[in-house]
Amino acid sequence: MPFLKIYIHFVWSTKNRVPHLSSFELREKVWKHIKVNAQEKGIYIDHINGYSDHCHCLISLGADQSIQKIMHLIKGESSFWINKNKLTKEKFEWQDEYFDISVSESIVDKVRYYIKNQELHHKNKTFQEEYDEIIRKFGFQKINPK
């Protein structure tokens, strides 16, 4: 059995960044569901949280898992579940794109803290401001698939 310790920080938004997840209670319900469902599929979510228009997730990647497959399973199932249970007034969708970055074990606790404090963090900064800051800070370039 292989031993892996690969942490990935995922961030994805609602379609068109519509703030569908408008209440703390709704967000808590969605994050809990995503975590439980992921666990049933063998996906280890270390931390999950977000705000009204996006989600942050720290995942420990398994030996037979790919980033694309994990995102497909998490986003697809959770949007289906949200719509099936009529948790939002309008049809709920996640944006197709997502952001992911590998996390060194030396800063895992900082990433956990950051994810845990999304409610406080987003009282002062929008998701777009946060995204732009990350892109500038780390010098990332958006890759447009063909």
UniProtKB/TrEMBL annotation:
Short name of any one Pfam family annotated for the protein: Y1_Tnp
Transposase IS200-like domain span: 3-118
Coiled-coil blocks: none
Name of the protein: IS200/IS605 family transposase
Gene giving rise to this polypeptide: tnpA
